[in-house]
Amino acid sequence: MTKALPTVRPGDHAIAVLPAGPAARNGTDIVPEVELRALDQLWFQVSGTVCNLRCQHCFISCSPENHSFWFMSRDQVAASLAESVRLGVKEYYFTGGEPFMNRDMLGILEDTLQIGPATVLTNATLLPQRVVDRLAELSRASRYTLELRVSIDGVTADMNDAIRGPGSFERAVAAVGRLAAAGFLPIITTMQSWPDHETDPMLQDFHQVLADVGYDRPRLKVLPPLRIGSEASRDRPYDEAEAVTVDMMAEYPSDLLLCSSARLVTSTGVWACPILLDYSSGRLADTLDEAVAVPARLAEQACYTCWVNGAICSNMPGFAMEQT
Predict the structure, then answer these.
(1) Closest by CA position to 43, among listed 297, 259, 293, 319
(2) In this prediction, what percent of the chain has a pLDDT beyond 90?
(3) CA 112, 115, 118, 124 torsion: positive or negative?
(4) How many CA atoms lie within 13 A of 180 on its CB side?
């Protein structure tokens, strides 16, 4: 039995407002909120903020030394999975940090694939053949899909490694080849770090790089930069005007935002979405049961990127570019 969630009527964008306090900006004293219309997606910060890379654009500045959020155990995830069945969750996402730094990751996927489809967001630098083989076994044994989202931020080692670190391009591309050979169709995600007029040739180059390792019809997802964390220093932070106001949400279809249909479970509580992990305004409750009743506050400037582009974190984006 699924638990009833707040109902959204046709034409009702489920927006409320609260006194903003420290989040007040743009001369207003209120910030928009988005209620959860249904808990379709459940995300897990399964490796906390711990990563084997130090990417220069990481919006939560993950690294080997960032222990702000720690790994989730298999038992912790299993408890939330059990809770999620009652809440009607349709699909599951695992992110970090690097999820495959979590020694329980394969067991966590085994548990998850018994109840629904799963997607892992990975830098693919920790996917040797034995791990790819086990992933393929898990996928074949389940009635649900297992997706791998692989981050590659350039079409050459020089371009990618300037952002993601030395050697990461070669390791990630090789892993994509192993995944493709095992029957996976990984979604290659890349942050747009080039001018718009270079997008078409850049996508053509991506197709060639991936074809060279046996992935002939790649799925590509181009993401906009999130100007927080390390990216704020690498390029620029948000301008003062780049923030979501109540007026901006007046005619906006809030179901395009991830926070209208998802929650993020961490080792220390539940957040509105993965992007707001570093913000106290993003923390909703201690438990998932409590968090489904709490609306998400669009108090941070990172929310502006989702307002412009839609649910950029999902496999099926709102407006973000996806090509095959």
Answers:
(1) 259
(2) 82
(3) positive
(4) 19
Residue 92 host element (H or E):
strand 91-95
- Does residue 22 register a pLDDT over 80? no
Question: Cα 205–307–221 angle (5° rounding)?
Answer: 20
Taking only the tens place, the pLDDT of each residue in 49-83 is 999 999 999 999 999 999 999 999 999 999 999 99
In degrees and rounded to multiples of 5, residue 266 shows phi and psi of -120, 180
> How many CB atoms lie under 10 A from the CB of residue 255?
18
* pTM above threshold 0.85: yes
Location of structure tokens 């084997």:
52
Q: What is the DSSP string of 33-52?
A: EE--S---EEEEETTTTB-S
Q: Count Cα atoms within 13 angstroms, Cβ side, for 222.
A: 18
Cβ atoms 172, 156 nearer than 8 A:
no
Whole-number Å distance between alpha carbons of 54 and 73: 23
Nearest to 282 by CA among 49, 17, 5, 33: 33
> Residue 268: enclosing H or E segment and its boundaries?
none
Place of tokens 């100007």: 227
Tokens representing 24 are: 């007040």
| Six token digits for residue 182 | 């095992």
Cα–Cα dist 27/227, whole Å: 22
Kindly state the average pLDDT of the residues 16-22. 37
| Closest by Cα among 14, 3, 6 to 254 | 14
Query: Are 249 and 255 a contacting pair, CB within 8 Å?
Result: no
- For 293, the token pair is 């009743």
